[in-house]
Amino acid sequence: MCAASSRALFGHIPSFSFEFFPPKTPEGARSLTNTILELQDFRPGFVSVTYGAGGGSRRLTREVVTELQNRGIPTVPHLTCVGHTEEELEEILHGYINAGARAIMALRGDPPRNAPAALTREAFHHASELVRFIRSWEERQRLPFRLTIGVAGFPEGHPDSRNRLKEMDYLKAKLDEGADYICTQLFFDNHAFFDYRDRCRLMGIDVPIIAGIMPVTTISGMNRMAELSAGTNFPARLLKAMLRAGGDKQSIERIGINYASNQCGELLDADVDGIHFYTLNRSRATLEIYRNLGINNYFDVDRIHMLNDIYRS
Q1: Class assignment of domain 14-312?
Q2: Running along the chain, 313 residues long, what does each successive block of 10 average in pLDDT?
Q3: Which residues are annotated as catalytic?
Q4: 234 to each of 154, 168, 188, 303, how far by Cα in Å?
Q5: 26-39 vs 55-70: helix axis angle to the nearest 10?
Q6: pLDDT at 60 (0 to 100)
């Protein structure tokens, strides 16, 4: 995946990508391997791997990156500012490059709960600073390729920001420092994404904007999503559908998959640059969404564009 720009990850537009997290147990590792085997036939544009501060998590992330790269799947490991000195960040970057990664997801990150004060004495406090550091490190290393750098986007607003106009300035700063694409936090209201995309374009941000989708498959999972993605709106029509299920687990899963399928269909009709599935290391929901969208393998992109042109003429 040696490339000059983000287009290396987006050879097909719209792109499809998945997110995994490093397993902590042998059972989790086996489950993740099975998930990868089931999803790799869809030829994802890339797979991202989450990351948390701390030595064990760092090692596990690198192991997953290595496995994915060995399978020929372009991999985007996460990197956060939290708890790291510049020397540690350089060490992590070297590890990712040696594992075969040619892209990085640069994030501010959240401090670990109950972390000692030393873990919060990081070199940088903002993702824009991290992007600048990665570009500087890349230049100093004289790499024979240009890293592709992704950053996070928040269609419904960052939970720590009260000024939505200023928030767009912060996003623009990340792009100005050298980021190549935006991957959004999960959302359930496509109108929020479309408005966000329009605001980005008004700001002169013309990089790919990838929509983050996570299907609700359990009530406990929905509560967990609400906790992890503070500020995400759960539309009334989704909540009403969940209530109609009356607590039946299979019905709730089917409602969540159908809702996400409809979201994805609408996003594709609106020429989304890509869809990023937050899989929770499971393949079933994502596979079902693919089937609902009629995707047996990868899109014949040229044919889709031709059909869209005919439809609009």
Answers
A1: alpha beta
A2: 49 84 85 86 86 64 85 90 88 92 90 56 84 96 93 88 83 96 95 96 95 90 76 89 91 94 95 93 90 67 49 44
A3: 19
A4: 15, 23, 6, 35
A5: 30
A6: 80
Task: Spell out a b/e string for 6-29, using b for 16 or more CB atoms within 10 Å of the CB, else e.
Answer: bebbbebbbbbbbbbbbbeeeeeb
* Residue that is written with structure tokens 């009334």 in the block: 236
